[in-house]
Amino acid sequence: MTDKIRVICWNEFRHEKKPGIIQTIYPNGIHEAIADALRKEPDMDVKTAWLDQKEHGLTEKVLDNTDVLIWWGHGAHDEVKDEIVDRIQDHVLNGMGFIALHSSHFSKPFKRLMGTSGSLQWRERAEKCHVWCVNPYHPIAKGLDDVIEIAHEEMYGEFFDIPEPDSLVFISWFEGGEVFRSGCTWHRGKGKIFYFQPGHESFPNYYQPEIQKVIVNAVRWCKFDGSTQTRHIGVCPNAKFTLNILSNPSEREEDFM
Known about the structure:
Rossmann fold, nine-stranded mixed sheet, 6 helices, 28% strand
């Protein structure tokens, strides 16, 4: 384990390759915009991966050397191979952090980890959005004001089909009146998961300092502290019978049969 937090920013990297507004906003891809912000942090070692790479850029070796995986997906959820989803789930259960951004609520890895559909209501109208911090004591909210104001964002609304969050950090309000649980955390096995709603591909919101701050904080929160747990989850070890752990050696199972 290195001193730095090893981060992979993953993206489909499809929208940005087509001429138009998205390519103009994110010429190097959404993943690179997020990665550039994280690379300014001295405690982070940041790399990127995307859908059309071999094994989606997420080989076993890559994930073995990843502390936190950030995921952005939208139009190609079904193209993510199930064996890669299996691999991601296994690594999360064993301590890798997972951050799902925006439309990744419908991604295969997120739905697998949640065990639900990830369904929600949506409307694309470039609406004003207020992201309210409802848990200012959570580490992901560190250094943030009560509200993040976003000039234009795609509306996401309830009902959001997710399990009850371990912690609800942010709630968003949109011009149409909808509210949405936009910042939620969970634990799965030894891994920590964070979902964050802002980040529609047609708006430059990943350049907004407050949004970047949330992601930076989330990476630090998601990082697994391996000093407290070491056993690999899922191997079903055979527990050996040790006589000297009994206060009375005569109290053995065979004595009661």
